[in-house]
Amino acid sequence: MSTNFGRRACLLTVAAGAALLAACAGSPAGAPAGSTTGSSSADPGADSAEQLPGPISPDDPGADVAAPPSWLPIGPAGPADPAPDMWYSRLQNKDCPGLADLNPDTSQLWTAAFTLCAAVVSQDAGDWQVGAEQLAAVSRPGPSDCLERATYDTLTALVAFRTTHPGTRINPASPQTLACALELTGLSTLGGTQTDTGPVCTSGGASIRLLGRLVSVTTVTVGARSVPAEQQAENTVFFVAPPADAPGTVSVTVGDAAGRFPGSATLQYTSDSGLAVDGPCSSSGTSPDAPSNPDQPSDTNMNTDPPSSTNPDPSSDAPVGTSTSSAGWG
């Protein structure tokens, strides 16, 4: 009986050893027996790879597919100026209701601009479609009409982008560029927007408006004297005429912290009270605060109408600078 027991023990030992050898042969070196590492190790993580998001579909409503074109650049244009400056200023600020208040009823470009301004603000698909159709009927303005040309180019680029990316929400930002080249083109001693040549007193003190396309003006040079500039709006800049040693004309230039702007203007001084647009004066240099002559207007406010026989008509609202109204802005 002891012999049979010994044989069974030997057989069990051999069987256990065979099983151990088989297990070791099926596992790669260094891997514990029973490990599942095998054919799946050739593609690690194949079954559990993270799915990365793909490109956004252009047809996905509200998706920001790409940065849209920029909005209108700086004019410079003044909100208190006549057309097209006033319209451009409000359009650049996306003041769509303000545009409606200034409807000239004659400009196809203005009509398209008003509709597309509303489209940008409301994101209404109907406004985009109508505005695109209105803009398609407009011819591109010439280079001399810098504000109208910038308006046309900006709106055309936005419509093209919206057509390529339907449903995309567009909120364009204004670039730090200019629609019109900076330049001093004239002066107004009447405070208007059209150049006039009315002389001022040699005693100085008259408020004079700079005309042209101006922004960030810091210094006005009158002859050899530098005087500060008062920028009341984007393209509305005044200065106070300094005293002059004698009647005559002097050159006026302007500049900012970086240097002088192109262009110049001429300011005329006089000692004749009957000619000066800013009130009585004399060759001895009457102070601008001196009592006024009752026969002459004493108010130096820019809205005071001068005698029509000696001064230009201040009622004209013609555009100034490099822009004209030929594109139908008013």
From TrEMBL:
<feature type="region of interest" description="Disordered">
    <location>
        <begin position="271"/>
        <end position="330"/>
    </location>
</feature>
<keyword id="KW-0732">Signal</keyword>
<feature type="region of interest" description="Disordered">
    <location>
        <begin position="27"/>
        <end position="86"/>
    </location>
</feature>
<feature type="compositionally biased region" description="Low complexity">
    <location>
        <begin position="303"/>
        <end position="317"/>
    </location>
</feature>
<dbReference type="InterPro" id="IPR006311">
    <property type="entry name" value="TAT_signal"/>
</dbReference>
<dbReference type="GO" id="GO:0005975">
    <property type="term" value="P:carbohydrate metabolic process"/>
</dbReference>
<feature type="signal peptide">
    <location>
        <begin position="1"/>
        <end position="33"/>
    </location>
</feature>
<feature type="compositionally biased region" description="Low complexity">
    <location>
        <begin position="27"/>
        <end position="49"/>
    </location>
</feature>
<feature type="compositionally biased region" description="Polar residues">
    <location>
        <begin position="321"/>
        <end position="330"/>
    </location>
</feature>
<feature type="compositionally biased region" description="Polar residues">
    <location>
        <begin position="281"/>
        <end position="302"/>
    </location>
</feature>
<dbReference type="InterPro" id="IPR013783">
    <property type="entry name" value="Ig-like_fold"/>
</dbReference>
<feature type="compositionally biased region" description="Low complexity">
    <location>
        <begin position="59"/>
        <end position="85"/>
    </location>
</feature>
<protein>
    <recommendedName>
        <fullName>IPT/TIG domain-containing protein</fullName>
    </recommendedName>
</protein>
